[in-house]
Specification:
By secondary structure, the chain is mainly beta. It has 4 helices and 14 strands. The mean pLDDT is 89.
Amino acid sequence: MSQQPTREGGLLYRETPSQTAGPYVHIGLALDVAGLPLRDEEIWNRLAAPEAEGEVIELVGTVIDGNGDPVRDAFIEAWQADANGNFQPDFDLRKPFNSFGRSATTADGDSEWSFTTVKPGRVPAANGKPMAPHVCLAVFARGINIHLNTRLYFDDEAEANAACPVLNAVESPARRETLIARREEADGKVRYRLDIRLQGEGETVFFDI
């Protein structure tokens, strides 16, 4: 996916660090994953504290490349409404809930990204119709020159999903399924799993935002 070197006027131009995620994104934003000392305050993967209003849940998944292999250096940003369908634009780690978070896959184990958050409420689309509960995800990784935007919907919100104007803008029912996270329980916690496939069979729907 990276650009090939080009020759112009006898000079060979190669891709610069600013054109790819890196390892640079981890050095600056995923310090623990990069093996660097943590800052006192960090925007990371806990959007909700236990006392947050609403149902506290976990979101997990892997990022998979066109060969079916896990992408072990992916970086994910999440943006969502609270349990009442309201976005919280002011980030403060002392608040029980923030609308924004970050996570990264790891180089070992199952290479999963994860978030602790609350199940979001419905919010209106531009046409005023309510969108189904969802989480907006931005995917950064080596070889992705411009981050990819997608969404996570919930499989136990079938009625809301069927009426969501954004989800149903994806014409193919099979393609819509690539945005639906599956509910499971682990260690007594409610968890929703969504694997993000960058290419190939079952490729995730990405939005041009």
